[in-house]
Write a structure and sequence with these properties.
By secondary structure, this protein is α/β, with parallel strands linked by helices. It folds into two domains: 134 residues, Alpha-Beta Complex (Aspartate Aminotransferase, domain 1), CATH 3.90.1150; 266 residues, Type I PLP-dependent aspartate aminotransferase-like (Major domain) (Aspartate Aminotransferase, domain 2), CATH 3.40.640.10. The protein has 13 helices and 17 strands. The strands form five sheets. A seven-stranded mixed sheet has the order 6-12-11-10-9-7-8, sandwiched between helices. Strand 16 and strand 17 form a beta hairpin. Helix 2 runs antiparallel to helix 10, helix 4 packs parallel to helix 5 and helix 7 packs parallel to helix 8. The chain is globular and about 70 Å long.
Length: 426
């Protein structure tokens, strides 16, 4: 499509948008009675209106049934997660039995690393991106240290080439091949939080398996954002949070994927009673017998109220249809890219440099932008004008138009605001 830098064109795109009504299903923050422009769903998604209804429903179960809510309510809590699994599985390309929601992201990563990082002999190293979210690095550091290895030796970090901001797939695959004899695990982010790069997870998985390593992904910035086919790609395990693109609330319950090929394996795991075989769980017998599937990695009692917010948000996404959301996402983000380029054209220099890949197959909603100078000042000016993005030191502004609730008109208005600030201050 040939984009135009005009209000009329942006409004025409909104009028043609078959998903436009979904914006009405979200609570948009307001200032002085006017909706803000919220482009920070990559950090915290907005609240669906249905969240309060689902939450109140479970509060009523608690009020009216108390402990019997686990067994006797219309949808008892013991099985509450089953519908969530059905809603969640298509979003990450899994079978329902391969996913479950539990805990928080890094806790889940620790639980999965306990099972899937199994160093043996000279095969003890882990490959990860050098610029991964720090929590992943901390988790890997703790696991290699507890197994008796030094981080600098056991964790292989791959960085972009000199002068480049993102990783080349061929370089990732080359490093995997280079370490074919000593890699135990390939552990990557699905999308890099800083640059917004969507990695070729299928190619990485294939390469890792070909040299005898297991492969897992942190999908915090990918789940609900980009197309994922964990089962078909043969990924061994994955984990993600739900408060970004899945709109399930701050600190919302996280999720895991374990490929069905591992269901009957003898992988070690940290056990707890909620992962015990369901039909015998309340017999309170000694000796851990895991539930079949990803649920066997559960540890603690399900937090029903967190699950309620998750369920409400997943229903909205399911109603929209992920393929429809992805189609609009590509269009929205491409229009944002176009508008930023037009701002640079009118300023007369590449003041705003997009470091996220230009290829739409290598990115999701997020564009990461380096300002030539005064980046934090520009970011603060946007916030002062009720345009909410995300600042990442030392010099990146992250903007993420979300297909469920952002509009093309908002992107146009962002461009005008950027231009006015740059003309005034630069």
């Amino acid at each position: 499509m040939q984009f135009k830098n005009s209000l009329e064109f942006a409004q025409s795109l909104d009028q043609q948008d078959t998903l436009s009504l979904f914006r009405e299903q979200f609570l948009i923050p307001k200032v002085d009675g006017k909706d803000i422009i919220y482009l920070c769903g990559n950090s915290l998604g907005l609240q669906p209106k249905a969240t309060q209804d689902e939450l109140h429903q479970q509060l009523n179960v608690w009020q009216n049934h108390a402990v019997e809510g686990w067994f006797d309510s219309e949808q008892n809590w013991l099985n509450y997660h089953h519908e969530i699994k059905e809603l969640l599985a298509p979003i990450v390309g899994a079978k329902p039995e391969e996913v479950t929601c539990m805990n928080s992201l890094t806790i889940n990563l620790h639980l999965l690393l306990t099972s899937f990082y199994q160093p043996k002999g000279k095969r003890y190293k882990i490959l990860m991106e050098a610029g991964a979210f720090p929590s992943d690095q901390y988790a890997l550091e703790s696991h290699v240290k507890t197994r008796g290895y030094a981080y600098a030796d056991a964790v292989v970090e791959i960085s972009p080439r000199a002068g480049e901001e993102t990783l080349r797939t061929e370089d990732i695959l080359a490093v995997i091949e280079q370490h074919r004899d000593d890699l135990a695990l390939v552990m990557f982010g699905g999308i890099n939080y800083y640059t917004g790069q969507f990695f070729d997870l299928a190619a990485i998985t294939k390469a890792g398996h070909e040299i005898g390593a297991l492969v897992g992904f942190d999908l915090a910035h990918a789940a609900g954002n980009v197309p994922i086919k964990l089962h078909d790609w043969g990924v061994d395990f994955a984990c993600w949070c739900s408060y970004k693109y899945l709109n399930s609330g701050p600190g919302g319950i996280a999720g895991i994927f374990v490929h069905e090929k591992h269901f009957n394996s003898d992988l070690p795991r940290l056990a707890g009673w909620w992962g015990y075989q369901l039909n015998k769980r309340f017999k309170m017998e000694k000796g851990f017998v895991p539930e079949t599937g990803a649920e066997g990695w559960q540890v603690s009692t399900s937090p029903i109220l967190l699950m309620a917010t998750h369920k409400a948000a997943l229903k909205v996404m399911n109603d929209a249809g992920f393929e429809n959301l992805r189609k609009k996402s590509v269009m929205l983000t491409s229009y944002l890219e176009f508008i930023i380029q037009k701002v640079n054209d009118q300023v007369g220099e590449e003041f705003l440099k997009i470091i996220t890949p230009k290829n739409v197959a290598e990115r999701g909603c997020q564009l990461s932008i380096i300002c030539k100078r005064g980046g934090k000042t520009l970011f603060d000016a946007l916030v002062a004008q009720n345009i909410i993005g995300d600042w990442r030191a030392p010099n990146v502004i992250r903007l993420s138009p979300i297909p469920l609730y952002n509009t093309f008109e908002e992107i146009y208005f962002l461009g005008q605001t950027l231009l006015n600030n740059l003309k005034t201050n630069c």
